[in-house]
Amino acid sequence: MNMLPMRSLALSFRSMSIASQQEKLATSFVVPKKPATAFNIFVSEKMKAGGKISEQIKIISKEWKSLSGFEKGKYVAKAESSKEKYKVAMMSLTDQQIQEIEQVTVGKRRAKKERKSIKLLEEELKKLQHDKPKSMSAYTYFVKDRFPANAAKATTEIAALGKAWTLLSSYNKEPFEKMARQNKLDRENWEKLVAKDGRLEKIEELKRAIALGGMDALKKNEEREELMAQMKSLKSELAKLKEDKPKVASNGYAYFVKEKIGGTSFSGKTDMKELAKQWNAMSASAKAPYAQRVAQMKLKVKEWEEAAEDAGKLGQINGINEKLKRLQAKMDKLEV
């Protein structure tokens, strides 16, 4: 029997209760349990507590294969009954609840795909770094010297070793310090080697991919960075085209505030509250000059737009805005 599907099945049984909890946490209702297959029902009946799951499934799989069609029939019937109950339960849910379940399912699939991708990347990284010297300090060499890798006492007597190291004279520490210096030199030489033989670039790429959640995530991140660079360039171009465009406030209050705080110290929230009180206490005639200023600035903006259109500048601006919209749409798509 293929070991990979068996391992996958073992993992699915191990994570069954966790997955159920995740579904309940992700939604505000009880998610109907997916129907089990005839084989899964058979496995759940035969499984024994405390035994090694993968070994049990291997034995149960052989037993399942040896069953006749008649013997399998009762499990098939149970599976059909389970399927019908699931259909009824799903029909009782609202469209929004079904959508929530789908979102949770998609999230789980994505997470599973990322885990698989990261595992493959880690294996590839391990191969590329197979000859990388392990970082070792003088104290690590001391511990290794006192307790070889197979020594059972290494964990229980580590505190005593720490004390022994601190009491060790500089002369007695020197052999271990020398080994640590050599280890550092070996690691530096390894860095030079991988830079020379071309591995370094691939190693760095794999590390970035692992940190981001897989190669797909790395590609998405690179696409995102490229889109952001394009958008930054377009926004810079847009700013130059609009640098002489008059700026207009949305209302008279903004001009009132600007007038009051211009050239004076401003303490933020406290002063703003006071300015708001003053504005609200003002009569309509007192507010009129600020409203007129808004109207005047809007007129200047209109004049600027007309001149920009005549000069062909407005068409450029509109074109850049359309490009920015398309790039933003691509950015939004990457986030899905």
Residue share in helix: over 70%
Query: For the CA atoms, what is the radius of gyration?
Result: 35 Å
The helix tally amounts to 15
Oligomerization: single chain
Listing every helix as H and every strand as E from the N terminus to the C terminus, the arrangement reads HHHHHHHHHHHHHHH
Beta strand count = 0
Mean pLDDT: 84
| Unreliable runs | 1-27
Strand content: under 5%
N-to-C CA distance: 38 Å
Structural class: mainly alpha
| Broad shape | extended
Q: Report on the biggest sheet.
A: none
Structure description:
- By secondary structure, the chain is mainly α.
- Helix content is 79%, strand content 0%.
- The chain has 15 helices and no strands.
- The chain has helices spanning 3-14, 16-26, 38-46, 53-66, 69-91, 95-128, 138-146, 158-167, 170-197, 199-212, 215-241, 252-261, 269-281, 284-310, 313-335.
- The two termini are 38 Å apart.
- Mean pLDDT is 84; it is low at 1-27.
Question: Care to give the gist of this entry?
Answer:
With 336 residues, this protein is an all-alpha fold.
